[in-house]
Amino acid sequence: MRPSRNQPRTQINGIKTGHGIRKTGIKIATWNTLSLYRTGACQNLTYVLDTYGIQIIALQEIRWPGKGQLKVGKYIVYFSGMEEGHAFGCGFAVHESLEPYIKEFNPISERITLLRVDTKPLNIILVCVHAPTETREENMKDAFYEDLTQVYDKLPGNVIKLVIGDLIAKCGK
Question: Which InterPro entries did the record assign (predicted)?
């Protein structure tokens, strides 16, 4: 997996197009890791993030117990998992260059976390979710979506809101 080396055209027939001249941006991604509780999983995570130049990534199925943050290479991993056992868990990995802009990490549950990033002209609030599968009980799915709705409704209106993660869409049988 190597990123493309193609570059945008900056001139067509001697006329500047303006392509290739971009202001600084934040590259945001999401990844269901299936587990960071394995040997070498964190090294693989940092390698992939460095390769693709991703500054913030929403992670699902981290499988680390408890809540907190941990420095892994050039990244700070904010996580929320179950208190006992190595199941579920979600969070964010943020490049160390963006650490001063992180204003809040709020671990709502092992399936919902929130990250507030101080940007201009508007702040960004990222909500990382890991939805229960279709085979789970109805009351568990209803409780998850009710929690997500409450979290989203409590967010202020003057920010960019991104709900990202593994929403587990199941099509067919």
Answer: Endo/exonu/phosph_ase_sf
Neighbouring-strand partners of residue 78 = 69, 92
**Domains contained in the chain, CATH given:** 25-166 (3.60.10.10)
Is the whole-model pTM more than 0.70? yes
Of 23-37, 46-60, 108-122, 156-170, the one with minimum mean pLDDT is: 23-37
Sheet containing 56-60, strands listed edge to edge, beginning at the edge strand earlier in sequence: 28-32, 56-60, 90-95, 75-80, 67-72
